């Protein structure tokens, strides 16, 4: 789970609803300040158990670099809502949501950020869904960034933990699962048991006393607002995702593989190999783990802006 370093939107950003052909989505949108030359738009897709707030620390530096930024809550995530049916969260459905969001974003032309290149970024699970969207239709996009997202299913140890979460969500309510995860993480921090009830994205909550009360309250509120069927369906995707790198490599789109130096969901070496297979630009953010967007936002924003500027100019990877 990405823990936002702060929750207050910068002055350049606002919370709003994005109407699309597939329904409305909650977004955080930032635009470049007056006098800054617009360089395009970025659509940011969060990961498992995540939300638009995961990208909050990227909004201002990317806007200052000239990019309009639209970070979304996907279907069933946090403030977007969604149906109580697992079929609604099939990967193809979520990919079509991204295409609808892209169409809606491109149709809007704010004065501060007129239509231009559209860059897609997916974090973790969001990378798998973003990849599926590009494979359905790459035409709306100028580039694709896979942030802390691998070539196929998550690592075996994380598959086991995610499977336990999915099983728990089938028989327990969201509050009960949350409390069980906190207790499991606390036991793991104390060296008791293996903490298996946690998941790769829901870790370090109970055993992180440095988390401000407001952030802890937000993480709980976000968890409770997420549709459990979304977590079940997308958790199963993380466990069973096939390797589609060869398919993606055939798409004529600049690709960026960005990660921290350590990752528990996909080994960093696996992402290195994926980048080679894709012929992608590769960036490693020093001091970051699974969430460079929250852990090292300034460095991450600089790397993204450099790649997007080159892709928008036709320089590719």
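Sequence proposed for the structure above (317 residues):
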């Amino acid at each position: 789970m990405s823990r936002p370093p702060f929750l207050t939107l910068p002055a350049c950003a606002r919370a709003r609803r994005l109407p699309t052909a597939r329904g409305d989505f909650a977004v955080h949108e930032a635009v470049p300040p007056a006098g800054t030359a617009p360089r395009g738009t970025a659509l940011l897709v969060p990961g498992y158990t995540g939300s638009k707030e995961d990208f909050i620390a990227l909004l201002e530096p990317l806007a200052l670099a000239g990019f309009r930024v639209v970070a979304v809550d996907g279907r069933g995530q946090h403030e977007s809502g969604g149906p109580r049916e697992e079929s609604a969260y099939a990967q193809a459905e979520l990919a079509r949501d991204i295409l609808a969001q892209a169409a809606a974003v491109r149709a809007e032309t704010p004065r501060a950020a007129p239509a231009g290149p559209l860059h897609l970024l997916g974090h973790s699970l969001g990378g798998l869904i973003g990849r599926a969207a590009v494979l359905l239709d790459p035409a709306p996009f100028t580039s694709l960034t896979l942030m802390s997202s691998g070539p196929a299913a998550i690592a075996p140890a994380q598959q086991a933990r995610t499977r336990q979460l999915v099983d728990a969500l089938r028989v327990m309510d969201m509050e009960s699962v949350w409390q069980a995860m906190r207790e499991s993480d606390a036991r793991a921090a104390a060296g008791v048991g293996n903490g298996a009830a946690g998941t790769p994205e829901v870790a370090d909550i109970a055993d992180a006393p440095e988390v401000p009360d407001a952030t802890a309250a937000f993480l709980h509120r976000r968890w409770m607002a997420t549709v459990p069927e979304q977590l079940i369906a997308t958790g199963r995707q993380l466990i069973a995702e096939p390797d589609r790198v060869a398919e993606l490599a055939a798409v004529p789109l600049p690709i960026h593989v960005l990660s921290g130096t350590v990752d528990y969901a996909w080994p960093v070496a696996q992402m290195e190999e994926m980048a080679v297979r894709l012929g992608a630009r590769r960036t490693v953010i020093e001091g970051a783990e699974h969430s460079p967007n929250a852990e090292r936002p300034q460095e991450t924003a600089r790397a993204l802006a450099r790649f997007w500027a080159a892709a928008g100019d036709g320089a590719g990877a």
